[in-house]
Amino acid sequence: SHGLAQGQGSSFGTNGVQDSRNVRGNYGNSSVDVTHAASFSWMYDLPFMKTATGFKGAMLGGWKYSGISSLRSGISLTPGLSVANQGLAGRPNVVSGQSLSYPKTVNEWFNTAAFAAPAYGYFGNAGVGILRGPGIVNFDMGMYKDFRITERTKVQFRAELFNIFNHTNFSGVSTAVGAGDYGRLTSALDPRIVEFSLRLQY
What we know:
This protein is mainly β. Helices cover 3% and strands 36% of the residues. It contains one helix and 15 strands, in the order βββαββββββββββββ. The strands form six sheets. Strands 3-4-10-11-15 form a five-stranded antiparallel beta sheet, with no helix packed on it. Strand 10 and strand 11 (154-162) form a beta hairpin. The longest helix is centred in the first third of the chain and has 7 residues, at 54-60. The chain is elongated.
């Protein structure tokens, strides 16, 4: 997909028009633009001990395995400013000769030398949504089984693992020129989380 917007819609009101006489200059990737996204889910009745009786059948048979996989490219980001005497500028200038490369390290997600604060009284010429944040690779999996107590009553046991491979999915990037953490990754989504639950159904 590709999300484009102009004016304040470029980031849903958080990055207003820099120059009211050049609203077109705020046209670019929206803040919810995600180029690629794929999601897969499954549920599988494990065949092991499915026909077993007695204790083996009660404890080892009838388990179900489920999962959700999410793969997504990063959202678009707009370079900003955090400098003294910023004036009316809301975005930096693009430095001539510098490539907007992606080192993709924690301390430098993108080439920070590609942007510089404009002179006081001038607007920055950097475009909207020209940076791309980190993507997401996440796998959630679970196992569950129903233990029947009576004809109408059963207890369901669930074991769920979110981000089962404990893959680090970074989420925040500082894009403001002049900020102390400029260019760095600033936050991440949840690490592996394991949950166990019992549900009584009657």
